[in-house]
Design a protein that fits this description.
By secondary structure, the protein is of the alpha/beta class. The chain is about 30% helix and about 20% strand. A nine-stranded mixed β-sheet has the order 8-7-4-3-2-1-9-10-11.
Length: about 280
């Protein structure tokens, strides 16, 4: 299959598979992890049931956690996802994949997205691994850099960094404010327009299949926060069908007060808007 990230984002709905909350890092603005090593082997029977429920939908299957590189049977997980013609497997790693499963970067049928930059400081750019940034490539390997408050404070001190990452395989993403203030990173307080939050509520940018609890989770941001848990649903074929047809999730209380980044005008192709707005 020949594709790139832009094509996948425009033509496929995305569902996050939280394979494990375990991670080998503790990024100061992330709550989607635990340093406790748990649930490191994916239940392949549950995975098969989940994929079968999704098989009729063009879906970008985002394998993450936690750190997916810690998963002991990740090769089997990816191989199973690739059995289905409607799926594109995507792996999001802090660069540990390069150490444990380097062959993933050589597989053109897998979108590999790497979050290597931790944050920016007056005298250094902190990184999560001892690797160079991914160069321009046709193997669907991408750098992702979060625009934290420190990014805006200090980026001009690093012109070589900007030059190194100004190519088609780099994504700059808006910072989210789901965690309390830690260190030099301030919480983000800008709220998206209500119509954008309502469209996000109908099908969030990050709906989750939680492999630890074997449930569907409405919003990973609230789920990960542990302060106000997102609504969860049993992982059934009926609920999958409702989710993929914008009928499972509602505009929740935490959507009303949400101050996360929500993409303006939604994150679907225009033909999807009418389905959401009718609801």
């Amino acid at each position: 299959m020949k594709f790139d990230l832009e094509y996948a984002q425009k033509n496929y709905l995305a569902v996050d598979f939280f394979l494990s909350m375990s991670c080998n890092k503790d990024c100061h603005y992330c709550t989607s992890y635990t340093l406790e090593m748990r649930n490191l082997t994916v239940d392949l029977v549950f995975l098969r049931e989940t994929l079968e429920s999704l098989k009729n939908y063009k879906t970008r299957i985002c394998l993450l956690g936690g750190e997916p590189g810690l998963i002991k049977n990740l090769r089997e997980v990816i191989a199973m996802v690739k059995e289905y013609p409607n799926f594109i497997p995507q792996v999001l790693s802090n660069s540990f994949i390069r150490k444990r499963y380097p062959e993933i970067l050589e597989d053109p049928e897998v979108l590999y997205v790497e979050h290597l930059t931790l944050d920016f400081y007056p005298d250094e750019i902190k990184k999560l691994g001892n690797y160079d940034y991914l160069a321009p490539n046709d193997m669907n390997n991408y750098n992702v850099v979060l625009k934290t408050p420190n990014y805006f404070k200090y980026i001009e001190k690093y012109p070589e960094f900007k030059k190194q990452l100004e190519h088609k395989n780099t994504m700059f993403k808006a910072f989210n404010g789901r965690t309390p203030t830690k260190g030099d990173v301030e919480e983000v307080h800008t709220q998206a327009a209500e119509i954008d939050r309502k469209m996000c509520a109908a099908f969030p940018m990050v709906p989750v299949i939680n492999f630890e609890t074997k449930t569907i989770v409405h919003c990973s941001k609230k789920f990960a926060n542990n302060l106000e848990l997102s609504r969860s649903f049993p992982m059934t074929k009926e609920n999958i069908d409702k989710m993929m047809n914008f009928q499972l999730f509602k505009y929740e209380k935490y959507c009303v007060t949400c101050k996360e980044y929500v993409q303006p005008k939604g994150h679907f192709p225009i033909e999807k808007y009418s389905n959401i707005l009718k609801v």
